[in-house]
Amino acid sequence: MAQLGLVGLGKMGFNMRERLRASGHDVVGYDRNPDVSDTASLPELVGALTAPRVVWVMVPAGAPTRNTVAELAELLTEGDIVIDGGNSRYTDDTANAELLGTHGVGYLDVGVSGGVWGKENGYGLMVGGAEADVERAMPFFDALRPEGPREEAFAHAGGVGAGHYAKMVHNGIEYGLMQAYAEGFELLDASDVVSNVPEVIKAWQRGTVVRSWLLELLVRALDEDPELEELEGYVEDSGEGRWTLEEAINNAVPAPVISAALFARFASRQRDSASMRAVAALREQFGGHAVKTKKVTG
Question: Among 122, 152, 185, 188, which is least packed by CB within 10 angstroms?
């Protein structure tokens, strides 16, 4: 059994705490929501841990993570380790590691994949940082990953920043996979040939080359709502797709699938597209093609 401090008990952090505790680890959690928190403050959490400490941060990326790391730098002591398991941009990791390093505190960045199902199924983990720090934290990584060969769900990706870089690319791939399934669903749904779309997609789960966990989740959604009529076709992006494309540009790596998937999300937020109005106007001008005009009220 090992002891861990866990900062941030939202959907991911809460389930991670439960999975770690089920494996026998002593987890002390802190969250601003007192209903789920074990301690009243970050200083109280640090005080409840026995040195040398390991503190895992699971708060939103950007300023919330940077501020939490900065506060921990003032509270922790030499030999402690901070793990950032959120979806931080990999460029933040160097600054975090340097700040903690001035206090003799180690730093690991961990890309965590598994979503709300991780508590039951385990999490895929991509880790960046020093080998010695990774080894110290390995009991927690082994408890969080799925059962089976370690290398199938865990990777020490490289030095500081490598874990979040790997997770960024992972999420970029995820964008493309989800978009492909979504476009396939729409084409089947629009066809006059296929009369039972949910059954077709369900049949892809075994024996086909497109089977995957994402497909299983789509089947689950269709079981609950066969036409997906209860949902609005509005999709946000949390940053990783944009960062992936920036890295593709910086490294001159073509990424047309991921870029198209990201832009499709942008399109989903447009109630009335100015660019498509321009296209309609041009088609009317050069070819006399029919257009739809807005109804004027009042």
Answer: 152
Report yes or no: 76 and 43 within 8 Å, Cβ to Cβ: no
Note the pLDDT tens digit of each residue in 176-196. 999 999 999 999 999 999 999
With respect to residue 293, please indicate whether it lies within any of the assigned structural domains: no
Tens-place pLDDT, residues 209-243: 999 999 999 999 999 999 988 888 888 888 899 99
pLDDT at 298 over 60: no
Give the 3-state secondary structure of residue 57: strand
Residue 205 sits in the same domain as residue 127:
no
Burial bucket for residue 254 (CB in 10 Å: 0-12, 13-18, 19+): exposed
d(Cα 88, Cα 97) in Å, to the nearest integer? 13
Structure tokens at 179: 């978009």
Span 20-46, pLDDT tens digits: 999 999 999 999 999 999 999 999 999
Q: Where are the beta strands (DSSP E) in 15-105?
A: 26-30, 54-57, 81-84
CA nearest neighbour of 142 among 154, 132, 152, 130: 154
Last residue of a domain, one of 158, 177, 196: 158
Sign of CA dihedral 251, 253, 257, 263: positive
The verdict on 221 and 82 lying in the same domain is: no
- CB 76 within 8 Å of CB 55: yes
Stated as kind and residue range, the H or E segment containing 159 is none
Residues designated catalytic: 167, 174
Average pLDDT over residues 115-128: 95
Q: Is residue 207 part of a domain?
A: yes
**DSSP per position, 100-134:** HHTTT-EEEEEEEE-GGGHHHH--EEEEES-HHHH
Residues 72 and 191 in one domain: no
207 or 279, greater pLDDT: 207
